[in-house]
Amino acid sequence: MKKIEAIIRKSKFIDVREALHEADIDFLSWWDVKGQGDAKQGLIFRGIAYDINTIDRIYVSFVVRDQNVDKSVAAILKAAYTGESGDGRIFVSDISQSIRIRTGDHGDESLYNK
Q1: pLDDT tens for residues 43-77?
Q2: CA separation for the pair 39, 66 (Å, rounded)
Q3: Fewer Cβ atoms within 10 A, N terminus or C terminus of the chain?
Q4: What pTM value is reported for the model?
């Protein structure tokens, strides 16, 4: 089992969610987050300094069976891509155990995706 986490542009979230749905990944969580890239600049307008380094993003997280990792990552890559700086990041990490609370199922059986 793998946990896939992605930080993507807000404007691409619907595309990513639909791409994951087409890849049979229907169960995921997401949060509105703020971050900072490598741009170091500010804006002063009428004597007031504004921080324009803070960027609004969506953080997407879900756990899949090993056989679904490649198609999940490919779906995010395709849907989130703009070719411009700030498209985001994808992280894949191992999950050692998963338990569905309602049924007590363990491991792959506790996941919804086939």
Answers
A1: 666 777 666 667 889 999 999 999 999 999 999 99
A2: 36
A3: C
A4: 0.84
